[in-house]
Please model this.
Amino acid sequence: SQQGEEDPQALSIQEGENATMNCSYKTSINNLQWYRQNSGRGLVHLILIRSNEREKHSGRLRVTLDTSKKSSSLLITASRAADTASYFCALLHGSSNTGKLIFGQGTTLQVKP
Amino acid sequence: EPEVTQTPSHQVTQMGQEVILRCVPISNHLYFYWYRQILGQKVEFLVSFYNNEISEKSEIFDDQFSVERPDGSNFTLKIRSTKLEDSAMYFCASTGREGRQETQYFGPGTRLLVL
Model:
């Protein structure tokens, strides 16, 4: 399937620890985007990484992309209780000319104070 | 910072009724999308819209669904005769002039409950 498969499905850590979430996929991609969703709320865009990029940073977020392994990871450093949310990867297929994003099932992150 | 807005935030309707979900994309954006998320499930693509026409639609987007950009700012999703299984969170998204391969910005969603 085209969709991203994320692991772990759930992650519980202490405040201050790092959290790593992984996304694997099966098709070629144009780009991969990571979103955060607080419970029952909207999707907040975090980072977009293109197929020709290997790593991007934004504040405490670091995203890597390995197109040979068809996988991406999202690292949140020095986590805070406010980081508690669900995190989704979303793929833009390599040949897409419509912008259709394919979402994964998500990782639910709980950061304990 | 510009953002996508959606109204209403919540809507409760009876099965068989028509609903219209409204979105105001970020101004000067050209590509518009609707997605939905059934409770506890992943976000699913419904339809993409560009240059006043549908560019792609999913299998979910059957004849009961339609989209419209009636003026220069609103983008609407209409469900003609709602079913129980249409209960979900509906998200609108838009992408800018740089192209459809850029960041999609999502609205806060409309939670639709069909009784």
The radius of gyration of chain B is 13 Å. Chain B touches chain A at residues 31, 33, 35, 42-45, 48, 50, 55-56, 58, 89, 91, 93, 95, 100-109, 111 (CB under 8 Å). The first strand of chain B starts at residue 5 and ends at 7.
